[in-house]
Amino acid sequence: MNIEEIVFQIILNAGNAKSNAFDALKHAKKYDFKMAEKCLNKAEDEIIKAHKIQTSMLQKEAEGERQEATLLLMHAEDHLMSAILAKELIAEMIELYKLIYQNKE
User: Fold this and answer.
1) Which residues make up the binding site for Mg(2+) (predicted)?
2) How is the chain split into domains, by residue range?
3) Which residues are part of a known binding site for Mg(2+)?
4) What 3-state class would DSSP assign to 10?
């Protein structure tokens, strides 16, 4: 796999993670916490996939196999970091929805 294919895989996994995280939030708004949890788990799985690719690239660089820092690579890293942040914040928001639901009853 060349560097562009590797980078696009990170972007794909990060995009899937972010979509799953926002799907989780939509379910939480409807108080469907089981589906919200399922979507958050899918988001985490996608983040792990992207992170493994990133870690592999870091290991290769540490071993002396340098990659050019392209705009595309920076874009992929940005996608991954925003997906991680979105998932973490949405997980906290879901906890708030759970409190609202408990106090509503």
Assistant:
1) 78
2) 3-104
3) 78
4) helix
Q: How confident is the model at residue 94 (pLDDT cuts 50, 70, 90)?
A: very high
**3-104 CATH:** 1.20.58.80
Q: Is 75 an active-site residue?
A: yes
* 47-85 tens-digit pLDDT: 999 999 999 999 998 999 888 888 999 999 999 999 999
State the binding site: 78
Count of other CB atoms within 10 angstroms of residue 90: 23
- Tokens representing residue 61 in the block: 């660089």
Task: Tell me the whole-structure pTM to 2 decimals.
Answer: 0.91
* C-alpha distances out from residue 104 to 34, 81, 94, 98, Å: 18, 35, 15, 10
